Amino acid sequence: MKVFSVAGESFRTGIMEMKESARSHQFCIRLSPSVAVACNMLDRTNETCLSEQEHANINALWASFIVEECSRLGLTYFCIAPGSRSSPLAIAAASHPLITCISCFDERSLAFHAIGYAKGSHSPAVVITSSGTAVSNLLPAVVEASQDFLPLLLLTADRPLELQDAGANQAINQVNHFGSFVRFFFSLPAPTDEIPARMVLTTLDSAVHWATSSPCGPVHINCPFREPLENSPSPWNLSSLNGLQNWLSSSEAFTKYIRLEASPMSIDTFGHMAEVLKVIHGARNGILLLGSIQSEDEIWAAFLLAKHISWPIVADVLSGLRLRKSLSSFLEVENNFFFVDHLDHALLSDSVRKWLKFDVIIQMGSRVTSKRVSKMLEDCSPCSYIMVDEHPGRHDPSHIVTHRIQSTVLEFVGCLLKTGFPRNRSKWTATLLALNMMVEWEIQFQISANYCLSEPQVAQVISEALPFDSVLFLGNSMPIRDVDMYARGWSKCTDSVAVRPLNLQLPFCWTWTSGNRGASGIDGLLSTAVGFSVGCNKRVLCVVGDVSFLHDTNGLAILNQRMTRKPVTVVVINNNGGAIFSLLPIKDKVEAAILDQFFHTSHKISLRSLCVAHGLKHLHVRTKMELQDALFMSQCEENDCIIEVESSIDANTSFHSVLRKFTCQAVDHGLRIFSRLYFEESVSPGLFLCKISRMEYTLFRIPLCAPTTTSSSSIDQVNRGFFREGFILSLFLEDGSLGLGEVSPLEIHKENLLDVEEQLKCLLHIFKGAKISSSIPLLRGSFSSWIFHELGIHPRSIYPSVRCGLEMAVLNAIAGRKGCSLLDVLQHRLVEEDDLSSSSKVKICGLLDSGGTPSEVARVAKTLVEEGFPAIKLKVARQGNVMYDAAVVQEVRKKLGNQIELRVDANRNWSYEEAILFSSLVKDCGLQYIEEPVMDEDAIVKFCEESGLPVALDETIDGIQDNPVKELAKYVHPGIVAIVIKPSVIGGFENAALVARWAQQHGKMAVVSAAFESGVGLSGYIHLSCYLELQNAEIRKLMDIQPAPSIAHGLGTFRWLDEDVTVNPLRIGRDPHSGIIEASVAEANRLLKSFQINQKVVCRKFTEEQVRRYKLTVDSKGFSYLIKVLEVGQRTNDNVLLFLHGFLGTGEDWITIMKAISGSARCISIDLPGHGESTTQKNDCDVHGVEEPSFSMEVVANLLYKLIHHLAPGKVNLVGYSMGARIAMYMALRFADKIGRAAIISGSPGLKDKMARRIRRVKDDSRARILKAYGLESFLEAWYRGELWKSLREHPHYSQIIASRSKHDDVQHLAKALSDLSIGRQPQLWDELKCCKTPLSIIVGEKDTKFKTIAQQILSQIDMGRKIKDDPVVSLHEIVEIPDSGHAAHLENPLAVINALSKFLIRSRTQLSYNSDFSGQVAITHESHLL
């Protein structure tokens, strides 16, 4: 015990000393105005000093007892409202060394702050108020705490009994003031020495026990005090302290409440839980519903159940698992967690509501935000509904719960996991997940295509921007609903810091999310959020509406008090009123004026002024970029921040309506497909239709009657004719169905036949055995997803023309399998429904190249119109004379009259000034639009505004494949009236449909344009054009816009075909009824179904090339090395490529790449010694007593040198990866007589520092021992856990890649290879690089930071050597960065690596070859073109 003089500074100093003491148990009780008793358990002295002359005020004594007991019970956060009657309590709390106090003049805000603290800390805060209405102001928070099971201790000062009902000031009846909303109430007597002081302690202990026991909630202790309230002396009898000796000498509470909790092991597994388990295991269509979960331990338990159960998981926004940040590959997550984040919007569809019936429902955690989800659960009744919650409340508003389990989530999950769950993803579950994917895509598209900052977009931005170590607090009304409906379920975790230790083994981390959903009011939200921040000790991002913000502006006074908490960011969505009422049925039932005044409660209050008045930082944002910047800035600073997002009730209402309509349509389309597939026995549980048996391609060359307008046709130098070249793809399904596609690249778009054929050869190998997903025809990101997840290829690495042909072939194959047309597949119709192809037709626009006099061009145009073309597109800007072009247009319009649509296409050939001049000359010619009038795409909008002419985009969108909706944002201008879409240039049907949809929703025409394809390509485009017309009609109907006339599409290139790839060419002609040129879907379907290739145009046909596998023996130093060899390509080809794999790899790693470039090179890969099927045997002749082979760099290089001599008489080119790259570099430097070029993929010349080499040797030797001791499986798991493989782990085929690493015949020799070929043992090659004469291509992955740096250092070292020798500047060496890949670039993005290798090792032979003496003299050689 220590006694401090209160009058002096010594008391305060003593308090500070105790606060700074480490691990001390301490308390402080005021015994007199100048004497207090403090106990520090680090101090073993026990001294008490009381002044008999200065006895303490009895009020102060009781108040000190109350505060001290609170401290001992762990209640150390006090919220104090100002007032006279509560002075003893306030002074006692403020004087206590272990108590943290905060004050606010508004009791309501203060009480909400207290429940926020309870949310964050799971411990009660203490609220102290004066008497009278100050107590009544606590009621809203008390109700919220009661409904949400939040512990809270209310200490309300009161007048003594003799002043009740006697007209005394501020005296109201405070007994049972909060009625049933508190778990415990006790009104203390006024402090007196006639009652033992220990009664105060036991009362407080009982109250806190009630507050913290299930069901948790608020407790109320009424504390009357008689005057004097100040610390004036008043005599009292020390006998009232009797029985407190033990309490005064300890640091524990007076009464200990002990709970005997049952162990999870003792749960009645064979009783009621046995029944529950039987229900769960017998479920056919079960759902796991995660309600509000506020404990991180329970979120963890919910995650474990989600991982082990094969049910769809609907996570409420307050569950903690609705907003997830991925830490690994999405494929790993998708295969183990079946989250359905957008069930609410899927339920907008009547069809889905009728189809979706669960037979078993497990709900963990209380309350579900979505009203539609709650209604769906009710509609599932009768079913087995298992409700799990720690508190005994019903949580059953629909009265459908059949099994109510009062248990923590932790205990319940522990019980379930003991029994285990079978992992079987049913077709029903797969269907629901596919529907969810469609809704997610639709929501994302609509939000992205709406370039105003909408409130749903705010929800998305917040979910993406929130750091993993922050928590989210959501206000009621629209903010919580918008986040629940529209936030991204998955986002990438970009934080560089490590995740929480609890989550180290998780594929994702969660976001702790909270809100006041007990009574769901809009009051006190800001104050609660600040309290939540204090309680959880984390950064809090709070999202509220403007009315909620105004309702709790006094909370700004609390926010402004910077206590020991982390910063709070408040996002206020200000739409000047209560927007939720515009989304409710009442909107259509009352007058607008009444709605605005009495429901919206519109206002014009300046939130900025309120923030300034409270000294808080305020940011005002209007755009997505501004919001992202504001959120980033707020996370980087240590200050509280208010971000005001400007919104509009009308715009918000309209956009929510758009979202509902389009998502409902999307899910209806999806269900139309999936519900039928659900009943097909041949469809697998993952909703895969079937497998691809094989794919072939045919190179064709068709004659044209004239040169193309794009100058992409070839010229036959002998016959002086014009030709179009390309490939016809034939894709065969396992049931024999055939799908045709066309790949005809345009060289003006940076593609050529050689590039394309290399990709096709690669894809022929990859496509074999691939499963076709039933979601592909949806064209809503489904193709891209399938390409990445099923094929393991990054979609953007595929050339646009190749992707277009592949999509066409796959869609046609699905149509063939279903016995319907391609249009029916796109429209999600089956054969038993109305056949769209029989009646669907597409208008065709005639194409005319300007040449000759204006009169001559006009006569040709007139001829086209007489043939039946309803529209004419005229190519201009060809002659370099704007006046001529204008004259041609004027003459053509004069000749055709005003009934014919006239378009002109400048192909970006004009300067801005020329385009403006042209526009001024043709402004009265009634052009439907002018295509690409200016060279600079950034000047297009300016041209629209200055010229007034309608504009169409063509080349501008050709290069847009990544996120086209974002890129198109700058072209939303109404002067841009059309988007011209070339599917083979924009990258296929899916991208075409996406761009077309964007255009149609913004009121623009979507015009499909051919690029001089054959009849196969044109047939596909006819189906696509008709599909887009039907899509436009649906969009306009949903948006309540009048139907638009059909569009004449740019398919007039059929007139250029002198011959076609099929013996029965496509027939496009004049419709006898309409009199115009139209393309029939039925005719296009006929060509695709009865296709017979025209052998006269076939150059050659290609099927997958076979791999030759054999073994070669190489002897060295008393050992025979039997090397496994794989070979692809012509053996007569003198361009030989030798591929060397990395550690743990085999020669099989290179098959995909080898097949791709085998047409231009002889490709050989091997299993390096110690790897794969290569083996080593000791010769009969013993060499110097050597018992085991060496796999050192020198030995392996000599082996390869001998092997190369056996395989090829001349030089070979090396391709090495990682360990193989180090070998390749070593050989390029030391065996230059046999190495022509070397491609180094993720390779290093070694370690410069001797100590670093020594450390690495030790590490690799240790790893080798572990490999020998524990086997390959555990070694692989540990090896690929490193940071170097982070990108590879995110690859969808990661599991297959790792499985291939386990195929090694001799693990002992594999371990020796690891040790002998350690980078710590190999000679460092940095100095030798200065003399490097062998051309090197250093290939690195975009995400491989370490080896990108090494690559630059290699090039710098080579360059240094060149400068020293004063060699001429010759570009022998290069660095190539492979996008979308990390260390294993050849596995992660093979198509990009193929292109890089081809350019460096193959096509370079057609350009420059250099003398071996590196003299700088250049000899030019020529090779014939591929054809």
In short:
With 1427 residues, the chain is α/β, with parallel strands linked by helices. The longest helix is centred in the middle third of the chain and has 29 residues, at 649-677.
CATH architecture of the largest domain: 3-Layer(aba) Sandwich
Per CATH, what is the topology of the largest domain? Rossmann fold
- Please identify which CATH superfamily of the largest domain we are dealing with: Alpha/Beta hydrolase fold, catalytic domain
How many domains make up the 3D coordinates?
A: 6
Q: Radius of gyration, Cα only, in angstroms?
A: 39 Å
Q: Give me the count of strands.
A: 50
Count of DSSP-assigned helices:
50
Helix content: 25-40%
- Under CATH at level 1, the class of the largest domain stands as Alpha Beta
Portion of residues in beta strands equals 15-25%
The overall pLDDT, averaged over residues, is 87
**Structural class determined from secondary elements:** alpha/beta
**Through-space gap between termini:** 100 Å
InterPro entries: AB_hydrolase_1, AB_hydrolase_fold, DHS-like_NAD/FAD-binding_dom, Enolase-like_C_sf, Enolase-like_N, Enolase_C-like, Mandel_Rmase/mucon_lact_enz_CS, Mandelate_racemase_C
Keywords: Lyase, Magnesium, Manganese, Metal-binding, Thiamine pyrophosphate, Transferase
GO molecular function: 2-succinyl-5-enolpyruvyl-6-hydroxy-3-cyclohexene-1-carboxylic-acid synthase activity; lyase activity; metal ion binding; thiamine pyrophosphate binding
Pfam families: Abhydrolase_1, MR_MLE_C, TPP_enzyme_C, TPP_enzyme_M_2, TPP_enzyme_N
